[in-house]
């Protein structure tokens, strides 16, 4: 397979701004966990705290962006384009809804009987359900998401740069792929989240991961594929 040459794109001002916020927040979390674990757990990464609520922002931006892309480009594109951005948009909205327990944390309505019995946080959301004694959130993150993220961040961009047929298919669907800088940012977010040496470091991972994914959707490696006229 012949390598397809792509010029490396530098970070733009929005990416620099978002990534600065992400890594400053993560460094604060790492230092806090080392110096005052009680403050880290009960203030910084607590439910509805200063890390969890900002996680909602990139998810909502992704959802709105996908709606805009569908309305703006779908008519001149193909079914793959429609499915890709419908999936990304609905997926982001689903995670957004799950994080606020579908409005329960805002409006404080009573948890339904089923979720009172099977949800670890006594809330109306799916990701904290217990199935056969195991938390659904753990199953998804350990068995599905990690494998999917590796394929998406590393395998897909590698194939995109080296295989013309794969590149054409990805561009036809306009699936947003990460730039090298975005992939590196994702890896750093993953590594830094473990330096708190506590399971709640996953809150930093969620915040950083959602923020970087927002940048990938907005400023992908193959951004021009979204605006090109394709059948």
Characteristic key phrases:
single chain, 231 residues, mainly alpha, two-stranded antiparallel sheet, 11 helices, 68% helix, 2% strand
How would you describe this protein?
By secondary structure, the chain is mainly α. It has one domain (13-227). It contains eleven helices and two strands, in the order H-H-H-H-H-H-E-E-H-H-H-H-H. It has helices spanning 13-35, 37-44, 52-73, 79-99, 104-107, 113-118, 136-162, 164-173, 180-193, 202-218, 224-227; strands at 130-131, 134-135. A two-stranded antiparallel sheet has the order 1-2. The protein is globular and about 50 Å long. The mean pLDDT is 86.
Give the overall silhouette: globular
Strand order of the largest sheet: 1-2
Main beta-sheet annotation = 2 strands, antiparallel
Beta-strand content bin = under 5%
Spans of 5+ residues with little confidence (pLDDT < 50)?
none
Roughly how much helix do the residues carry, as a percent range? 55-70%
Task: State the total count of DSSP E strands.
Answer: 2
Summed up, the helix count is 11
């Amino acid at each position: 397979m012949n390598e397809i040459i792509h010029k490396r794109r530098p970070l733009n001002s929005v990416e620099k701004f978002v990534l600065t916020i992400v890594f400053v927040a993560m460094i604060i979390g790492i230092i806090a966990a080392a110096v005052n674990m009680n403050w880290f757990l009960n203030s910084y990464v607590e439910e509805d705290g200063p890390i969890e609520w900002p996680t909602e922002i990139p998810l909502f931006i992704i959802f709105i962006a996908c709606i805009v892309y569908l309305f703006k480009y779908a008519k001149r594109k193909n079914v793959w384009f429609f499915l890709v951005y419908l999936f990304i948009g609905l997926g982001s909205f689903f995670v957004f809804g799950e994080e606020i327990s579908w409005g329960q944390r805002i409006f404080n309505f009573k948890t339904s009987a089923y979720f009172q019995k099977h949800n670890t946080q006594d809330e109306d959301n799916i990701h904290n359900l217990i199935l056969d004694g195991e938390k659904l959130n753990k199953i998804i993150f350990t068995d599905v998401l990690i494998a999917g993220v590796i394929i998406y961040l590393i395998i897909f961009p590698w194939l995109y740069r080296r295989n013309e047929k794969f590149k054409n298919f990805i561009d036809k669907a306009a699936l947003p792929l990460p730039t090298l800088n975005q992939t590196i940012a994702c890896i750093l977010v993953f590594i830094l989240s473990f330096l708190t040496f506590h399971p709640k470091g996953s809150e930093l991972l969620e915040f950083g991961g959602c923020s970087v994914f927002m940048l990938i959707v907005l400023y992908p490696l193959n951004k021009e594929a979204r605006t090109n006229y394709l059948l």
